[in-house]
Design goal:
By secondary structure, this protein is of the alpha+beta class. About 60% of the residues lie in helices and about 15% in strands. The protein has five helices and three strands. It is globular, with a radius of gyration of 15 Å.
Length: about 100
């Protein structure tokens, strides 16, 4: 798809999608999930966040199909939904690290 094929509805969807990356807590969660499957408890401990805060952010990320959960016994292990998610973050980091980003 080239940029000429993007209609107003897709622009709105794209803006909504990128809102997920505007929250530092969600980015920290996505970064951890990029390393492999992680439980809510482990995420909370690693990121020094409450379990309820992690669960809230995971719910948002799951609704946007950025993460997925897998039930194992009493625990749910989360991972990135697919490699595209990691690619989006990686490309943004390359852009920032190349000095193309000004604060």
């Amino acid at each position: 798809m080239n940029n000429n094929e993007i209609n107003d509805e897709l622009i709105v969807d794209l803006a909504d999608f990128f809102k997920n990356f505007s929250d530092s807590s969600r980015l920290r969660i996505l970064n951890e999930l990029g390393k492999g499957d992680v439980s809510v408890n482990t995420l909370a401990e690693t990121l020094n966040m409450s379990q309820s805060a992690v669960s809230h952010q995971l719910k948002t990320l799951k609704a946007s199909k950025l993460v997925k959960g897998k039930q194992e016994g009493k625990n749910v292990f989360y991972s990135l939904d697919d490699e595209h998610v990691k690619g989006i973050i990686d490309y943004a980091l390359v852009h920032i690290m190349e000095g193309n980003y000004e604060k």
